[in-house]
Amino acid sequence: MSVPKAVVTDIEGTTSSIAFVKDVLFPFARKHLAEYVATHGQEAAVRQCLSDARTLAGEPALGDVGTVALLQRWLDEDRKATPLKTLQGLIWADGYARGEIKGHVHADAARALREWHAKGLRLYVYSSGSIAAQKLIFGYSVEGDLTPVFSGYFDTTTGPKVEAASYTKIAQALELVPGDILFLSDNTAELDAAKQAGFRTAALDRGEVALPPGHGHPVVHDFTSLDPFAHVS
Ligand SMILES: CSCCC(=O)C(=O)COP(=O)(O)O
Ligand SMILES: [Mg+2]
C-alpha cells in the first residue's frame, strides 16, 4: 500500500498524556469556570457558549449560575459538548498565557511530528478539545511550539469523533481520498469510525488505559515505532 498523504492525530492519550488532561487541564477549567463566566459573561463568545449549553440541555430558561453548574456537571462527566469545550479553551488560554499551564506532549510524538513534517507529510489534529485549545496545547508545549508542523485542526464542530461522517467531512476538507489518510488515536470507537469512513488507522497504547480486546487496529506504543512512510494497514 502507498504512503499516506496526511496524518490526522488525536491529542489526549495519543500525542499527550491522559493524566495531563484529566489532572491538570480539566481541574484548571473547573476551578476557574464560575469566576471566568462572572468576569467575561458579557462577551459575545461566552454568551454564545452559555446559550448553546442551555439549548443542548433543553433548559432555555436557565440563568448563568445554573448554566455554570450544568457545565461543571458536564466537565465531571467528560462530556464532549461543543459549548463546554469552547469555554474550556477560553479559560485555558489565560492559564497558558500566565505560564500556569504548559501543554504536555510526549517527546516521541514531538520528535516524530517534526520529522514527518520535514519530510513533507501533511499533519492535522482532530480532537474533542476546541481548535483554540488544540493550538494552545501544541503552541505552549513542554516540547516547544509545535504549531508550525500542523496544516489544520478539526474539533467537535466537524462532528463527534465516534461518527464515520465526521471523518468523511475531514477527508473532503483535506481534498484527499480517505484511504490516503492515517488516523491515530487511543480510542477504538474513534478508530472504528475512521476505518468505516475508509481511513487507515493505528491505535496508540501508551499503557494509561487498556484497549478493548479484538479491536482489529494496528497497535503501537509510541510514535517511535510508527513509521507512516512504511505504513500498511
Ligand atoms: C486540546 S487538549 C484538551 C483535550 C480535551 O479537551 C479532550 O476532551 C480530549 O479529547 P481528545 O479528542 O483529544 O481525546
Ligand atoms: Mg484520545
From TrEMBL:
InterPro entries noted in UniProt: Enolase-ppase_E1, HAD-like_sf, HAD-SF_hydro_IA, HAD_sf
Class of this enzyme: hydrolase
Keyword presence, Transmembrane: no
Cited CDD domains: HAD_EP (cd01629)
Cofactor: binding details: Binds 1 Mg(2+) ion per subunit.
Cofactor: Mg(2+)
Magnesium in keyword set: yes
SUPFAM superfamilies assigned: HAD-like
Family, per entry: Belongs to the HAD-like hydrolase superfamily. MasA/MtnC family.
Subunit structure: Monomer.
Record's protein name: Enolase-phosphatase E1
Gene transcribed to yield this protein: masA
